[in-house]
Design a protein that fits this description.
By secondary structure, the protein is an all-alpha fold. The chain has helices spanning 4-12, 19-30, 33-45, 49-77, 81-89, 95-126, 137-146, 150-167, 170-197, 203-210, 219-232, 239-244, 253-286, 296-309, 313-346, 351-371, 386-413, 416-423, 433-459. Bound molecules: 4-fluoro-L-phenylalanine. 4-fluoro-L-phenylalanine binds at residues 29-30, 32-35, 108, 231-232, 234, 237, 239, 331, 334-335.
Length: 460
């Protein structure tokens, strides 16, 4: 099954330099738009602290085990997501799963890079926020996203940023960029949070975010929490598998996974504490009830308005959108790298050529999604615009099914000994066997049953 060619590829595969590099690259993939616009909004709307509790339980029982498994499959196979499943099982037929992974990355990038483009535009604009004085942010935003050329041009700029990093390679590009950006991301989000909390009346925002309301928890909220956790920690689509394939043999997969998932959740909670206290403080000042938009509206309509009203808002705005952009880039490069690794190894292309091809494909997919706010606004798929359809398809269906497949494959098709062997670095790490056994039970039974149950209860 594994040809000589394959071993040749394997020999030249790049690796992350060390533990810090692995953690920042994977956290970079995880921390993204999902943390800064989706999570805070979902928490606020779906029961505050009750949602956070549910989210953490889902993480521990389902999503973290899936993360560890996807990471483990990558390192054990040392191949791109297309080849990994076939190689590990010894049966080429399993490569179909790899095709699904690559497909997921297309669907995901088709809308992600469009929002990345909007972020570029808003970051540049936030330098000149005063020009928007008195403007209606909702009209401005809608005019912008529905125009035929401008959002596509920004999407292309966003992809060029990605391409430059990917061209530089795994260590000099992805790892180096993530190392700098992760520190910057955390520094800025803490700064913005402190500013936001210092505004008079901000405590109402904290109440909105954290006040537990268990009555809001139902099966659809559980599905949203699961979908959000998969999206947020980048699992189910092969990105973590691809990064895992660049990790050294000596790395402790279990502990580095726990750190990455912990950092991702911490960042999302910080983002909530940066956003809602500011919104409530400004609303209190104006004597109005805060308008909390769903999805992109929160970041691109509500926040620019808030920044305009708040003391030092100009600087905070620049910092916030810079952070959003960098978070988006460190995430989307993991998607692009997955496709590039496939082109490099399966089509024997050079890194630069592969990156140009990947970027071109994403620009085309992104254009279709972007136009769904304009000339293609009449096109509807199952009652959704193309953009919304891609978002829902990826987050609620493809990543979840991908995650389900990954745990089933690792625990039913592969051998338990392989699972334990890889996670314990051939027994050298000294992780207690009972812990690995518990993990295996989570991967083999709890995660699949949980995913299927939540999926079904939501559909029924
Ligand atoms: N985790 C990213 C976010 O929260 O924005 C999104 C993401 C990136 C999902 C890469 C999946 C992926 F493979």
């Amino acid at each position: 099954m594994a040809s000589k060619d394959f071993y040749k590829i394997n020999a030249v595969r790049e690796k992350f330099a060390g533990r810090f590099g692995v953690i920042v690259a994977m956290s970079g993939s995880a921390i993204g738009l999902g943390n800064m616009w989706r999570f805070p909004y979902m928490v606020g709307q779906n029961g505050g602290a009750a949602f956070i509790l549910l989210y953490v339980v889902m993480l521990l029982l389902i999503s973290l085990p899936v993360f560890i498994t996807e990471y483990m499959l990558g390192r054990r196979s040392r191949s791109n997501s297309f080849r990994a499943f076939g190689k590990l099982s010894g049966k080429k037929v399993w490569n179909f799963a790899g095709i699904l992974c690559i497909l997921t990355s297309f669907c995901m990038m088709s809308f992600y890079c469009v929002v990345g483009g909007w972020t570029v535009k808003y970051m540049l604009e936030s330098f000149t926020l005063n020009m928007a004085q008195g403007a209606d942010f909702s009209i401005r935003f809608n005019e912008f996203i529905s125009s035929p050329v401008s959002p596509i041009a920004y999407t292309a700029i966003f992809l060029v940023l990605n391409a430059v990093i990917i061209c530089a390679g795994v260590r000099k590009g992805i790892e180096r960029f993530s190392k700098i950006m992760m520190l910057v991301l955390f520094a800025i989000i803490i700064l913005v949070t402190v500013r936001s909390l210092a505004l008079p009346g901000s405590v109402d925002g904290l109440k909105f975010l954290f006040k537990p309301d268990f009555s809001k928890i139902d099966s659809s909220v559980m599905m949203s929490a699961l979908g959000q956790s998969f999206f947020s920690i980048s699992i189910g689509g092969g990105a973590i598998l691809t990064y895992g394939s660049y990790v050294r043999d000596s790395e402790n997969i279990v502990s580095s996974s726990a750190v990455v998932v912990g950092l991702d959740t911490l960042f999302a909670i910080f983002a909530g504490m940066a956003i809602f206290p500011a919104i409530f403080a400004i609303a209190n000042m104006n004597g109005t009830i805060p308008e909390i938009e769903a999805g992109p509206g929160l970041v691109f309509i509500t926040l620019p308005y808030i920044f305009q009203k708040m003391p030092l808002g100009g600087i905070i705005s620049v910092l916030f959108f810079f952070n959003l952009l960098m978070a988006a880039v460190t995430s989307s490069i993991s998607q692009m790298e997955e496709f590039v690794a496939f082109l490099l190894e399966e089509c024997k292309l050079k890194r630069v050529t592969a990156t140009i091809i990947a970027s071109t494909v994403y620009v085309i997919c992104g254009t279709v999604c972007s136009l769904s706010f304009g000339v293609l606004s009449d096109v509807s798929i199952l009652g959704n615009s193309i953009f919304d359809f891609m978002d829902k398809l990826t987050s609620n269906v493809m990543l979840t099914c991908g995650g389900l497949f990954i745990v089933l494959f690792a625990s039913w098709i592969l051998k338990k000994e392989d699972f334990i062997d890889e996670l314990s670095n051939h027994g050298s790490l000294g992780i207690p066997l009972w812990l690995l056994n518990v993990l295996f039970i989570l991967v083999r039974f709890v995660a699949p049953v949980g995913i299927i149950a939540i999926f079904l209860s939501n559909i029924l």
